[in-house]
Inverse folding.
């Protein structure tokens, strides 16, 4: 897939003007300038309540940011290298969808200083990103959210659900079929490399995934300076019967207060085969002296409930993770495949105008789709956020209809629900 380089997209002129009127300067931050990169990194850390990055961590961050489009907001009369009062960065990445991939405008590092709240800065950042992405012809935007109530106002919706899993190993038991491969411990640099390699090979199997990057795997593997507990991270890989690595797990152990027992916290579990998944889950659940296993960002069809003898020993909590925002309806809907034939007219409301219109969606028996603007009554009406919510195949359209957020012919809603849902369950296994 040929992807647009987001660094070639200029700062959104509307946000430039609006923030200038508020006495602020909204501009692209030049990461080639070490002073600007350092200030940007400090502002990003401040926004996420982290400590200031050390030199090694700063070097990693700067390397990552050099490949991205970085926007800073500054006091208009501040020095060139002053600390920004807000940050955001973005890049265009492939996101998996049923049957393939779509270019997505990924948004990250959204921060506003506590001293500058309620001044329209967040609005300038998010609207600026959406206008820039739409102007550049990118059909969809995405992000992961630390706060769940911010992004809906811009048309984003939680579209990739994941599960937080906790296993009480004192009662769970283990009933999984044996695996023919073997487990091996990894040093942390090897762990980072194997997690990234397995993720890249396996991510295409599930809708909602994006590629990782070196700094992400380094942080998961405990290699990032300043994280404090990086040396507690351990890694194990699974090799199949031929000796090829098919999965890896990053984890840490914390002693419980009531004796010499531990909680095993999985920082990341990546597997490209069912055998690898069973073996790595088995390593965690059957680990000596471990009473509890915790992990987040698991797919909703994770088989853990069927690997243990007592399902009641497993807490399985579904929550939002991947947020999407459709900008170009025909390009987005035609990029994926579907599970059932449908011919329906959709009326999409969008106060920003990007996705607004009445669209005829025709899905063939082979799962391919065509979309065209029409002048007709809609069979089903919804907002851009609702269309974005169901796009990856994780959220049933009928669920939104039951909540009163989608209106129209019930048979058509049922048909669209069956068509949009994806199997296996969508997943976004990393933060970005």
């Amino acid at each position: 897939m040929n992807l647009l380089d987001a660094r070639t997209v200029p700062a959104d002129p509307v946000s430039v003007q609006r923030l200038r009127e508020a006495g602020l300067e909204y501009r692209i931050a030049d990461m080639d300038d070490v002073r600007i990169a350092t200030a940007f990194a400090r502002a990003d850390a401040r926004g996420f309540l982290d400590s200031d990055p050390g030199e090694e961590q700063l070097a990693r961050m700067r390397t990552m940011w050099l490949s991205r489009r970085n926007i800073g907001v500054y006091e208009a009369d501040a020095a060139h290298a002053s600390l920004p009062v807000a940050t955001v960065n973005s890049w265009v990445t492939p996101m998996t969808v049923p049957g393939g991939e779509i270019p997505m405008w990924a948004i990250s590092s959204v921060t506003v200083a506590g001293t500058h709240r309620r001044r329209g800065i967040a609005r300038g950042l998010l609207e600026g990103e959406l206008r820039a992405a739409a102007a550049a012809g990118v059909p969809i935007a995405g992000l992961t959210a630390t706060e769940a109530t911010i992004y809906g106002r811009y048309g984003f919706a939680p579209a990739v659900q994941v599960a937080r899993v906790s296993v009480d190993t004192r009662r769970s038991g283990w009933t999984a079929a044996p695996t023919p491969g073997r487990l091996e411990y990894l040093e942390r640099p090897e762990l980072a490399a194997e997690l990234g390699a397995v993720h890249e090979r396996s991510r295409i199997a599930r809708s909602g995934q994006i590629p990782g990057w070196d700094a992400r795997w380094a942080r998961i593997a405990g290699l990032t300076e300043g994280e404090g507990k990086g040396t507690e991270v351990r890694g194990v890989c699974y090799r199949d019967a031929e000796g090829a690595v098919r999965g890896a797990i990053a984890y840490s152990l914390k002693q419980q207060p009531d004796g010499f027992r531990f909680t095993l916290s999985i920082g990341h579990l990546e597997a490209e085969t069912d055998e690898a998944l069973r073996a790595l889950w088995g390593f965690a659940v059957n680990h000596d002296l471990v009473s509890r296993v915790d992990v987040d960002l698991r797919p909703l069809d994770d088989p853990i409930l069927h690997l243990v003898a007592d399902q009641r020993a497993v807490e399985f909590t579904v929550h939002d993770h991947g947020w999407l925002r459709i900008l170009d309806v025909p390009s987005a809907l035609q990029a994926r495949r579907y599970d059932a034939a449908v011919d329906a007219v959709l009326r999409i409301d969008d106060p920003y105008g990007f996705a607004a219109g009445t669209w005829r969606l025709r899905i063939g028996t082979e799962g391919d789709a065509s979309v065209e603007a029409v002048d007709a009554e809609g069979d089903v009406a919804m907002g851009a956020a609702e269309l974005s919510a169901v796009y990856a195949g994780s959220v049933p359209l009928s669920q939104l209809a039951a909540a009163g957020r989608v209106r129209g012919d019930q048979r058509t809603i049922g048909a669209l629900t069956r068509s949009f849902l994806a199997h296996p369950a969508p997943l976004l296994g990393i933060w970005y």
In short: The two ends are 20 Å apart (CA to CA). The longest strand covers residues 100-112. Residues 121-135 form the longest helix (15 residues). DSSP finds twelve helices and 17 strands in the chain.
